[in-house]
Amino acid sequence: MEPVEPAGRNELVNRLSLWRRSEPRLLAGVAGGIADRVGVPAVYVRAGFVTLTTVWGIGILLYLLIWWLTLDHQATPVVRELETGQRVGLGVIFVALLWLLVASGFVPDPFATFVTAAISFGVASVLDRSESGGIARLIMPGETQGVSVFRFIAGVVLLMVGLGLFFGTNRVTSSLGSTFIAVALTAIGLMVAFGPWFVRMRDDLGKERLARARQEERAEMAAHLHDSVLQTLALIQRTDDPRRMSSLARTQERELRTWLFGKAPLEEGELLSTALAAAAARVEDERAATIDLVTVGDARLDSRGSALVAAATEAMVNAVTHSGSDRVSVYLEVGEGRAEVWITDQGNGFDRAQVAGDRKGLAESIEKRIARQGGTAAISSRPGEGTEVHLVLPGVEPVTK
Amino acid sequence: MIKLYLVDDHRLFLAGVRSELEDRAEIVGTATDVDEAIEGIRETSPQVVLIDVHMPGGGGVAVIRAIAETNPEVRFLALSVSDEAEDVIAMIRSGARGYVTKTIAADELAEAIERVQAGDAVFSPRLAGFVLDAFSGGQAIELDHDLDQLTAREKEVLRLIARGFAYKQVASRLNLSVKTVESHVSAVLRKLQLSNRHELARWASDRRIV
């Protein structure tokens, strides 16, 4: 990424390419900005500010000064880090400066400054969760695992020294029981030492669990696709009949849609339209035909509705088997207290007076089936013009969707 | 030959339609997403656009509305596997002159494209069913408003289309001329686009197409 030039208030700050970090930040992003520029985790910079604060509050003043001189950096922090050598130099300058201040007698309480430095850098070192950054990288470059361990141990040692010195002087201990202090110290030490490790372990566990859930989901999908889509594709490859092929494809499409979009399987439909759709789908599958179903209005499926569907199914099968056409249109309309179904094909048609006995029987069975429910069936056909079966079932209450 | 433009985000399907229609229309371009389609259509100014309902970036509706502003003479025929009435009605209300399902045979598709180019409406059985459903039952905002009602003749025509008959067959069954059937269907299309019926208004507002 091209580094974005910050527009600071001041030429010097501009030349230093320094800005305040927008996210993540603790206060105003000053420490974060410096950390990005120098190439160390922000915790160390913060430790530096804390240490300097013990010298007449310089830390706070410096913080405010830099805050005033710099601007917020809106974009993603651009890491234009210093070279390792520069970084070491900066660290040496920082230590040397402190030394100078102490030597010149400027520091009011060198002991407090030293203890604060030990504690704050110790805490920073333990809190630093970056695998490759930080002070430790200067000493052990490359080995991230070693760096991590080293940084951790160094942090704990610094902490112990700092805390030991702090409590070792008799300034505080005189007023508190030494046993209590020992216990508290141990507890704090343990928390500081193992807290980050525990948090990290918990995070890793969560990630692992999520990954496993995803994997299981993927496995389930793979199993389903294998059982359905892949099998169908294999079947299609082995089929020469284009009608059978398209029928297989349509069935598969229907199944996949149901599975993907969670629509209730058609077979369990409790509505007249879904029952008819299921019946049409079965005929399509078994007879390798295409059935165009259109429905207007709907009704709850009861035994009479089931009879209507059964009669319509027979008519569909009849059309597919005898008409010579592989396309059948089915139209269901529910309204005005009745349900009507038209089954239309554009096939050969027939003359009712001249058809063979078995076909007449089929037609009659459709009529009888629907008549038992108080409905009527009308079959109209002329040779060469296709056939239409019209079923009417009165006494059907429409439902609103 | 009719200058045709194809829009569909499934390249495989696009290729299929292209090979089916190559001899019957001059295919001036294809696109697989909304922006590409708008740009391509403005550049090639086809007579008819065959357009998919569902597409990334706003769907067919977005294309139709954008083109209507700059090239109102371009006519749209919606083509989809969608079974959702809302989607189909939304396409019609934003200006498509017809809707056919993707299972349509090549001959019928070619005929539908010619019909749309001539300024007529193309109703597949499914669209006819949707319209009958939308205009039956429920309440019209104003019952005496022409736009919110289908005439008895229009209903008859739509029923026959829903039952799977071609315009010619509808005409012969009702003892009408094909032209009359076409004008009935076009009248229904106009009502579909302009009606304020509750059902249509709801679909429209759900889809922000008003």
Q: What do these coordinates show?
A:
The complex is a heterodimer of chains A (401) and B (210). Chain A is α/β, with parallel strands linked by helices. Helix content of chain A is 60%, strand content 11%. Chain A has helices spanning 11-16, 30-38, 42-53, 58-69, 84-103, 110-127, 135-139, 144-168, 170-173, 178-237, 242-261, 272-287, 303-322, 357-371; strands spanning 20-21, 72-73, 290-296, 298-299, 327-335, 338-345, 376-381, 387-394, 398-399. In chain A, strand 7 (376-381) and strand 8 form a beta hairpin. The two termini of chain A are 55 Å apart. By secondary structure, chain B is an alpha/beta fold. Helices cover 52% and strands 14% of the residues of chain B. Chain B contains ten helices and six strands. In chain B, helix 3 (59-70) links the parallel strand 3 (48-52) and strand 4. The relative contact order of chain B is 0.12. The model of chain B is unreliable at 138-144 (pLDDT under 50).
Chain-wise SSE layout:
The complex is a heterodimer of chains A (401) and B (210).
Chain A: H1 11-16, E1 20-21, H2 30-38, H3 42-53, H4 58-69, E2 72-73, H5 84-103, H6 110-127, H7 135-139, H8 144-168, H9 170-173, H10 178-237, H11 242-261, H12 272-287, E3 290-296, E4 298-299, H13 303-322, E5 327-335, E6 338-345, H14 357-371, E7 376-381, E8 387-394, E9 398-399
Parallel strand pairs in A: 1-2, 3-5
Antiparallel strand pairs in A: 4-9, 5-6, 6-8, 7-8
Helix pairs in contact in A: 2-3, 3-4, 3-6, 6-8, 8-10, 10-11, 11-12, 12-13, 13-14
Chain B: E1 2-7, H1 11-21, E2 25-31, H2 34-44, E3 48-52, H3 59-70, E4 75-80, H4 85-93, E5 98-101, H5 106-117, E6 122-123, H6 125-135, H7 152-162, H8 167-173, H9 178-194, H10 198-206
Parallel strand pairs in B: 1-2, 1-3, 3-4, 4-5, 5-6
